[in-house]
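Quick one: structure for this chain?
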Amino acid sequence: AASPLESLNTGLLDVFKPLVTQGSTIDWASCENDQSAEFKSDFDKFTVELSQGIQSLSGGIDLPSPEPPDIDLRTLSYNEIAKDHPELVSKYEALLEQWCHLIEQYLEQTLESQQKES
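Got it. Here's what it folds into:
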């Protein structure tokens, strides 16, 4: 089943957008041309931003979880962990560097795809 945001996006794009963009066939009643043009423009911007947001959420990024250590860290202070278990510090430092690299790649790809679309 689609998420609520995807359902909203589908409804806006497939049902409402064709109705709104039909131009002169719609009776805008007491709405002046500037107002209807502004509404159409804002509606288009909203649907584009919603689509991009959904794409961002669904594409997302998958960061690997840290492996549980062999010791119970809850009983130790940060200083004790650093002093008595330097291998854990190195392990988590490497994991953090990996996360930073993955996030940077994701942001670069997202920026490139946005630049191609505009």
